[in-house]
Design a protein that fits this description.
about 110 residues; mainly alpha; about 90% helix; elongated
Length: about 110
């Protein structure tokens, strides 16, 4: 699928970016990370990778913005996860109450 190819391409770009960071090619790494982010924009860890590279390049304002974006995306993920867990719990509670009523009637 198109989504699968995009995810695979993003993974490849992230690996290339990590290799470039290890070799000290920060501009090349930023290029790969930026391209990966286009393919997988909601991935907070890409923002973290970009922030660390900007930090190493002594670009503190840009690094700070990216670190804040990383933390913000993590908070959104946590809120979404809690919401989904609460929805599942609410369904379980409703089901349990229904079953109690049914079981009491069948006694």
């Amino acid at each position: 699928t198109t989504e699968g190819r995009a995810s695979s391409m993003a993974d490849m770009l992230l690996r290339e970016g990590d290799d470039l960071v290890a070799r000290g090619d920060f501009n090349g790494a930023l290029n790969r990370y930026d391209r990966a982010q286009v393919l997988r924009g909601g991935d907070a860890l890409i923002d973290y990778r970009i922030a660390t590279v900007l930090d190493k390049q002594l670009r503190p304002i840009e690094a700070q913005i990216r670190y804040q974006l990383f933390l913000h995306k993590l908070e959104l993920e946590k809120i979404r996860a809690v919401g989904e867990a609460n929805a599942m719990l609410a369904n379980a509670i409703a089901h349990a109450k229904e079953r109690i009523i049914v079981l009491e009637r069948n006694r």
